[in-house]
Structure formats: structure tokens, C-alpha cells
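re: ur question from yesterday

yeah so i grabbed the chain u mentioned. its 217 aa long if i counted rite. heres the sequnce exactly as i have it in my notes:
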Amino acid sequence: MARFKSMRVRWHGHSCFEIIGHVTIVTDPHDGKSLGIKPPSAEADIVLISHDHSDHNSFMSITGYRKIVFAFVGGFDFEGIKFTGLQTDHDDAGGKKRGKNVMYSMTIDGISICHCGDLGKMPDENVIEKIKGTDILMVPVGGIQTMDVEELIRFIDTVDPRVIVPMHYRIGGLSMPINSVDAFLDAMNIEAEQIGDEIDLSADELPAERTIWMFSR
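ran it thru and got these C-alpha cells back, copy pasting raw so excuse formatting
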């Protein structure tokens, strides 16, 4: 498996990212076919799954993994990386509608990342405190099944990340009834940086001011 001096982050559509540092992490893999989009093509050391829904739990779409972490709450280590699974809700009713959701917080090669899974409501203060000031916040912006735009912006302002990475929104071919990214971008009032399907970076290359990274496929 290829290694890079800097971290590489690659988007495979929906909520699936491949994060390549001294280990390779894949988050919330989908199978592509059931969503109407291209499936991920990724090899991982560890696969993180936020919740047991078919558009997030298709670990069989990934090759080479040595460990699968399935909606795990608490801290764990893998190859020198400390991960924390944080319990949240997939809806605004304490999980009664869509169940629970686990956000994963991690620091890789000096860069802190939080993948929010399908976050359905503002987390409690204890969870917020653990991710406050994270470098990169991967957050669902398509609404309907996750937080609406107004609550989402309040969440982002509270966490205060350096980089916001929108995910889980409607793209061409996606059969799931969620919104496009447009309403979120309009409400944020920050010009998004278009970066293609992947980006290489190191800790000293992170932007000083809040930035939105728009991945594409």
C-alpha cells in the first residue's frame, strides 16, 4: 500500500473518505450500486463505521483491512493513532427515529479530524468539548436525515474547525432523497475551495482561517 510524506484525503462519495497517513483509514463505506453512484475503490488498514445503515456500513466494498470498528463508543488505539468514538443521535428524538450515530475523532500525523457520520442533532456539551477546535470537520450537510442548515451552522460555530468538509448531500446519480450542498454553502457565506477528489496536506499547510473544502468525484 502506498505511503505519503503528507496526509492524503480522498473522497469516494457520500460519507466515505480514504485518509492516508502512516496508516490508511476508510470511513463509512457504501456499495455505490444501491445509491446510484460509483462504488469506492480503496484499500484500508482500518475501516470506521458510524452506524448500521446500508449507505455507511459496506465494509465488503473495501479491501485489505485488518480491523473494522463498528459504531464503537470510547477510546481505542491502532498503529499509534488514538481514536475516540463519540455517541450521538441520528435524529432529533434521541435516536428513536433512526437510531444512534458515532462520530470518530482522531489525530493523524499532527492533524486532528472528526468524521460526524449521520449527525442528526446538536451533540451534548461533553461531546462538543472533545472535538472543539478540530482541524478538519467532516459533516453531513444534505439535511432531511441529518441536521438542518440552521442547526448545522450552530454546530460548526461551536466546534470552530479550521476546515469544513461537506459530505452526505445530493450529487448526480444519487438515489437517496437528501438536499444538495447549495443551501449549506449559501448559509455559510464562505467561498468554498474546489479541490477535486483528493488533497495532499501536512499540518503546517492547514489554512489559518476557516475554509470549506469541496471534494468532487
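noticed a couple things. The first helix runs from residue 125 to 131. also The first strand starts at residue 7 and ends at 11.
anyway ttyl
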